[in-house]
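Review form for a predicted model. The reviewer records the input and the model, then writes brief findings.
Reviewer: anonymous (R2)
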Amino acid sequence: MEKDWRGDIVFSDSVAIFRGPVGPNKAHSHWASQLTVALDGALEFEAADSGRRGSKAVYLSSKVTHQLFSGFVCSIYFDPLSASRLESLGHGSTAGWVALSEHQLPAELGTLSAATDLRALLDSELLRVTAPASVSDDRFPDVAREVAAQLRDGNDLDRDALARLVNLSPSRFSHWFVEQSGIPSRSYKKWLKLRMAMDALLDGEKPTDAAMLAGFSDLAHMSRAFSESFGLTYRDALHAWQHARQR
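Model under review:
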């Protein structure tokens, strides 16, 4: 494990890609699904109390506790309300994660290297996102967009307000949101706030201002949420981004 995070980062509204050596991280889980591929040698990791393992790659479903220990890697993260062809890599796993050999990866990922154009990969058909298969109600995409739009405008709609959008009782709305997306609405809002905070930090906002702009009560609240979700601090992530911009 390196002493800090440094490498390349690119992201869109639904996908983020990091490439570089594994830096300091604790056992953690997040709502995004994750595929991490070793670019040089093997990846060393632990998932769901499995003990340390080594493999070419690992696919981790949403909320699976994991920790990376070593490797020069490319990690791809998907917004929890998005799905892609890569979801099929996790099918058949009852533990929520699966170690993968090079032959089990799509051809586009088997040839990843330090020279791969990450922006082109981000825009590729392989990473094109769709709604999760669990979404069966046509109203759900509109609700998800409204949640994001209101947060960007500084409005954190409570459960009662969100329930009124789809004419459901508050308790029924909570169940409905999980049925459609696989995650609670409160957790999804926290995920969106973290994305907003990182966008603000990358735009040059001071950490305290970024936390407030994203709707966190204070910097400590944002810091805890970031560490719990990604296993590294927001300062680590910002340092990796700054390093990538300087290359």
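Findings: The chain has a mean pLDDT of 87.
Further findings: The chain has two domains: 8-131, 140-245.
Recommendation: see findings above.
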